[in-house]
Amino acid sequence: MKLMERKLLSDADTSSTGVIKYTKQRYLEKGMQFLFLLCACVSILAIVLICWFMFKNGLPAIAEIGLGDFLGNENWKPLDDNAQYGILSMILGSLYVTAGAVIVGVPIGLLTAIFMAKFCPAGLYKILKPPINLLAGIPSIVYGFFGMCVIVPFVRDYIGGDGNSILTASILLGMMILPTVESLSETSIKAVSQSYYEGALALGATHERAVSTVIVPAAKSGILSSIILGIGRAIGETMAVIMVAGNQPRIPDNILKGVRTLTANIVTEMSYATGLHYDALIATGVVLFVFILLLNLSLNLITNKKEV
After folding, report:
1. What is the phi/psi pair of residue 165, to 5°?
2. Cβ–Cβ < 8 Å for 278, 269
3. d(CA 33, CA 30)
4. What is the pLDDT of residue 305?
5. C-beta of residue 165 within 8 angstroms of C-beta of residue 100
6. What gap in Å lies between CA 286 and CA 292, rounded to an integer?
7. Which tens digit of pLDDT belongs to each residue from 90-138?
8. Rg of the chain over CA atoms, in angstroms?
9. Claim: this prediction has a pTM higher than 0.85
10. Which of 96, 89, 107 is closest to 170 using CA atoms?
11. 76-77 and 84-85: which strand pairing?
């Protein structure tokens, strides 16, 4: 009888301990859910505040200057008596430099990702992967110094021009977006089900043909996402571009001429701008902000299409 009572008391203690642990775990889960919700709300609030600040200060300037003059005029002369605030040359400069970066960085990054994911031996992978990851962590100013000291003289001596040009900026930005394209593309390729590869081999395809015709197309959404993120990195880069692109607000007639990008224009003149000049620089940021929003929208559409 006493043994039975002891057993019942022991079972009751065990049950009480289990209930307490379960209750603590539930409170912990609820607390973490609240923390995650709070972080999400803070992120949304930050975006809302940024949008409010940019459009509140930028749209009146665009209205005063005139949308056609602001976007369609290539002359940027804010300090003249007859001031002009046209950013067409800088929009085209940003697009030229970004397009050049995509031409340089995307093919190299994609081919590197395919090699690292499906062809690279394990021993060599351990040697190559850390430097590729390190490229993503190098500060922009260091890239800019490298461009000034190495790429600019090379372009000037062996290709032409003074070295500070669209070509130089494109090469440098291509190097900067390469790790983004490579890492995300490699992850997407590795995420493709092994059954796709095995099915291709079963149908008689070689390893190279299976990778190029089955694995890579199956990872298309992730690869496109990496390209879009790389474009976002290129179009938003400032310091490195200022140091190698020439910082000249004009529409160039070839890739060996200098340009000024939207980001470079803001950074260069914001320290001394006042009045409408200051508001016009914020309006330039609005145009850049809209470009980034369109890129993010494209990324979301690609991601949603992949999930469907």
Report:
1. -150, 175
2. no
3. 5
4. 62
5. no
6. 10
7. 999 899 999 999 999 999 999 999 999 999 888 899 998 998 888 888 8
8. 27
9. no
10. 96
11. antiparallel
- Kindly write down the DSSP assignment for every residue of 168-184, as one continuous string: HHHHHHHHHHHHHHHHH
For 207-236, write each residue's pLDDT tens digit.
889 998 999 998 888 888 888 888 888 888
Percent of the chain with pLDDT over 70: 91
Cα–Cα distance measured from residue 265 to residue 82, given in angstroms and rounded to the nearest whole number: 19
Does residue 99 sit in helix, strand or coil?
Answer: helix
Q: Which helix (H) or strand (E) holds 85?
A: strand 84-85
Phi, psi of 187, deg, nearest 5:
-60, -40
Residue with tokens 């790389």: 230
The H or E element spanning position 77 is strand 76-77
Structure tokens at 194: 């092994």
DSSP secondary structure string for all residues of 10-51: HHHHHHHHHHHHHHHHHHHHHHHHHHHHHHHHHHHHHHHHHH
Cα–Cα distance, 47 to 277 (Å, whole number): 25
